[in-house]
Amino acid sequence: MTRTLLILDPDAQRYARRVAEAGVAGLRVLQSSDAGALPDGFHAAEIVLGPPQWIAPVLPCLRSLRWVQSTWAGVEPLLQPTGRRDYLLSGVKGIFGSQMAEYVLCYMLMHQQRALQRLDAQRARRWDKITSEPLADREVVILGTGSIGREIARRCVQCGMRTCGVNRGGENPGPFSRVMPASTLVEAASMADFLVMALPGTTATRHLVDRRVIAALPTHAVLINVGRGNTLDTRALAAALAAGRLGGAVLDVLEQEPPAPDDPLWQTPGLLITAHVSAVSHVQEIAPLFLDNLRRYLSGDRPLHLVDFQRGY
Ligand SMILES: NC(=O)c1ccc[n+]([C@@H]2O[C@H](COP(=O)([O-])OP(=O)(O)OC[C@H]3O[C@@H](n4cnc5c(N)ncnc54)[C@H](OP(=O)(O)O)[C@@H]3O)[C@@H](O)[C@H]2O)c1
User: Fold this and answer.
1) Cα(14)–Cα(284) distance, rounded to whole angstroms?
2) Which of 30, 125, 142, 240 is 20 to 30 A from 300 (CA-CA)?
3) Does residue 181 have a cis bond before it (omega within 30 degrees)?
């Protein structure tokens, strides 16, 4: 029996080459690197590979659909309440953690080393002896103990930091010094030198870090969000920063991406914004994960990293 794989991705050609090189039998591969130009016969696709926002509009047309492998970690566009749920959806795990951990550590170190103040001093031709603080013995509270939160924790442990994870139930998947349930988030926040958010965007995580959590943070604490923008009450954060009630914040993800040119967030004191770049999908990393899952699927096993439609991640 021939199965149809639809690759709908900006890197479709490279993915198709990797599939061809793997010599998977009984597979017809259709591909497009243009979301608006679907290949002939795409309706017959049983398997789809690509970013969720490209796949979501096509889903209603795929009558034989059985399995989707996302090329991105976040799958929110495929989880709309009115959307299809009659297929398997695989996310991406174990790939982005390293990039995300380096991003988080970069900004933690910049803060502790006063890197921006030193740059300001140089630009003003001032020979200021701006001293630094170590990361060692600082407490990082990591919200989300999934594949990304765990890798961030592993790197923080290597820097001698104390790591407190927060997840739904408080179970410790390692390597956290301890893990607390989300119901105690205010308490966890009150002990944080750094609060790192690595959460999926779900109904339950919307504004999980709200005004109360932000108010509980010590005034020297730094908040870093690399998960999803809507998990943080951004306006409450901006108000706290503007009032000098926080050490700083770094947001790679925002509730509105990009913010409007006149959005006051751009100018919020102590806030660094990056353009959703803390981890990007590379074909050389996603292709092996997909090919492994493809072999599982074609041999009748369940693919790995399945998303629970009900839970939202
Ligand atoms: N900025 C970027 O470029 C970028 C790149 C990649 C990923 N991301 C984002 O990062 C997110 C996390 O990725 P991941 O691979 O680590 O996900 P994951 O392995 O699925 O882990 C998700 C974690 O979030 C926790 N969680 C979910 N709902 C919660 C709630 N209501 N209260 C407390 N904790 C909750 C889970 O807790 P339990 O353990 O209790 O289930 C789990 O520990 C992704 O969903 C994606 O949105 C962003």
Assistant:
1) 9
2) 30
3) no
Mutate to test the pocket of ligand 1, among 53, 151, 168, 179 (most ligand atoms within 8 A of CB): 168
What is the β-pairing status of strands 194-197 and 222-225? parallel
Buried b (16+ CB within 10 A) or exposed e, 270-279: bbbbeebebb
Q: What is the per-residue pLDDT across 182-211, written as a single tens digit (0 to 9) for each? A: 999 999 999 999 999 999 999 999 999 999
pLDDT of residue 161: 98
Asked if 225 and 246 touch (Cβ cutoff 8 Å), the reply is no
76, 89, 128, 208, 295 from 302: Cα distances, Å: 21, 10, 60, 32, 10
CA angle 108/159/135 to nearest 5° reads 45
Rounded distance from Cα 28 to ligand 1 centre (Å): 34
d(CA 54, CA 138): 41
Contacts of 108 (CB under 8 A, 6+ apart): 135, 140, 194, 222, 224
Distance 74 CA to ligand 1 centre (A): 9
Cis peptide before 175 (omega within 30 of 0): yes
Q: How far is the first Cα of the chain from the last one, in angstroms, to the nearest whole number? A: 32
Q: At which residue do the structure tokens 């901006």 appear? A: 238
- The pTM of this model reads 0.96
Rounded Cα–Cα distance for residues 12 and 18 (Å): 10
- Which residue stretches of the chain have pLDDT < 50? none
Residue 1: predicted pLDDT: 83
Residues 6 or more apart whose CB falls under 8 angstroms from that of 274 comprise 103, 250, 251, 252
| Separation of alpha carbons 275 and 273, rounded Å | 7
Residue 41, pLDDT score: 96
